[in-house]
Write a structure and sequence with these properties.
The complex is a heterodimer of chains A (84) and B (271). Chain A has 84 residues and is mainly alpha-helical. Chain A has one domain. Helix content of chain A is 69%, strand content 0%. In chain A, 25% of the residues are buried. Chain B is α/β, with parallel strands linked by helices. Chain B has a single domain, classed as LigB-like (Protocatechuate 4,5-dioxygenase, Chain B). Chain B is 37% helix and 22% strand. In chain B, the strands form two sheets. In chain B, strands 6-3-7-2-8-1-10-9 form an eight-stranded mixed β-sheet, with helices on both faces. In chain B, a hairpin with a 4-residue loop joins strand 9 and strand 10. In chain B, helix 5 packs across helix 9. Classes of the chains: A mainly alpha (84), B alpha/beta (271). At the A-B interface, helix 1 and helix 6 of A face loops of B.
């Protein structure tokens, strides 16, 4: 488990314009710079909202990150449906 | 000169970013009250605003997360959110007042982080947009961690506010003290959109009846389950209640605005 690293990656993409550009150019290469498990890396690269949320990514990191990746309000809510 | 004005206000980004999503009458009523509060602030002729505020990953991350942070910058830029529909501006600081507050804290058993460079997100910028039009007054931000656990207890926030209040009452400057955040909301969470009106009303009632015992008894878990992750921001209101303990709280507005997904409150405190 490296939730810290997952959140660090998301924080960097959200808040650092230069890093965001690297992420946009090659997300897989960008993700390799962080100490992620295969599962975490796949959740990031697939923008798997439900997986990222349930692993504990802070909602105010996750929502801006998913907005940058064009996840609509409807799709975001759908992904979290049934969770508390 | 002492504290000359005090108020607490919510800062839901929808207030400016998607104003028109709310029922027109409800939005106008709430935002009109917000502006009137700004007029009352100006009428008190303060020299500076001290903002008990929070932030949303604007400056700090989990590698270094302060429980309390006092800004000591010459200026603060914001808002960081491009979509907030509030023009970007540079807000003047008051580094002298900041230094006085920090020194007083360190002399008296509070050890806040201090920072000479902070960005403002909507938590600070949105209230200033209504309460400090044209960013005319200098601002000193006092950030309380209401973002990610572990957070300071309600009791500690009240005590911190109580201490800051005593220091500010002895300041040579006229101070407007504002608190920003809350009330119940679940931003970006599975329960996004929920507003817990009974919780909000109980909390507002605690302020109005000056029930300091109850205000300091709110636990992290209770706030989390009843008011959502955004509800933790009531810590700034609790700190303000500690700062102006003898002042009467006046409910200026409360609107549970569904499209803004937040129980929106405005409370003025009168000496």
């Amino acid at each position: 488990m490296s939730l810290y690293q997952v959140q660090k990656l998301i924080y960097h993409v959200n808040r650092d314009v230069e890093r965001r550009e690297h992420y946009r150019q090659d997300a897989a290469a960008f993700a390799k710079k962080y100490d992620l498990t295969e599962q975490e890396s796949s959740a990031i690269l697939n923008i798997d909202v439900r997986a990222l949320y349930t692993m504990g990514v802070h909602s105010l990191l996750l929502r801006p990150f998913t907005l940058l990746n064009k996840v609509s309000n409807e799709d975001y809510a759908k992904a979290l449906k049934g969770l508390v | 000169m002492p504290i000359v004005f005090a108020c607490a206000a919510s800062h839901a980004p929808g207030m400016t970013a998607w104003t028109e999503a709310a029922p027109k009458e409800q939005a106008e009523k709430f935002l009109g009250s917000y502006r009137q509060l700004g007029e009352r602030l100006a009428a008190s002729k303060p020299d500076a605003i001290v903002a008990l505020t929070v932030e949303h990953w604007a400056n700090f991350f989990l590698n270094s997360m302060p429980t309390f942070c006092i800004g000591r910058a010459e200026y603060y830029d914001g808002p960081i959110e491009e979509w907030l529909r509030i023009p970007k501006a540079r807000v003047t600081g008051d580094a002298t007042l900041s230094a006085e507050l920090i020194d007083a804290c360190l002399d008296s058993g509070f050890d806040p982080l201090f920072s000479d460079e902070l960005l403002f997100d909507h938590a600070t910028f949105l209230p200033l947009h209504f309460l400090n039009p044209n960013m005319a007054l200098p601002v000193v931000p006092v950030i309380i961690n209401a973002l990610t656990p572990p957070m300071p207890s309600a009791k500690r926030c009240f005590a911190f506010g109580e201490f800051l209040g005593k220091v500010l009452q002895q300041s040579e400057k006229r101070i407007a003290l504002i608190a920003t955040g809350g009330l119940s909301h679940w931003p970006g969470e599975a329960q996004h959109g929920r507003i817990n009106i009974p919780f909000d009303k109980k909390f507002l009632d605690n302020l109005i009846t000056r029930d300091h015992q109850q205000l300091t008894a709110y636990s992290h878990d209770e706030i989390n389950s009843e008011a959502g992750s955004g509800g933790h921001e009531i810590r700034t209101w609790i700190a303000l209640a500690g700062a102006v303990q003898k002042w009467k709280a006046e409910l200026v507005a409360y609107e549970p605005v569904a499209p803004w997904a937040t129980g929106c409150g405005l409370v003025a405190f009168n000496p």
